[in-house]
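<tokenise_the_fold>
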Amino acid sequence: AQGRLDPTDRLTRLAGSIGRSVFARGRFYLDGFTDFTYQEREIIRSLLRSGAEVSVCLTCEGFEEGHEIFQSSRRAALALRRKAEEANQEKRRERPAEAVDGGKKD
């Protein structure tokens, strides 16, 4: 197995290279997950930071308390919400002032 990457390493490399891909600015729909590994969350974070539109479908009763069978999906949803908020904040910091306020000067 020398020279081969294990699946975790492949996902880590993918997360690190997403920002260089034009495909990363597209639309992504993620379905069939109940939770995400660290590497999968980093891929989603990289997509968000690259400007991708990411939709995730998780089976749960919402973000608040609910039946324990949905607990892992609820935790995943909350973690993804934080990642999206962080990516949005980073995007705002990266934009030049004229893009944010239309170039108006006080």
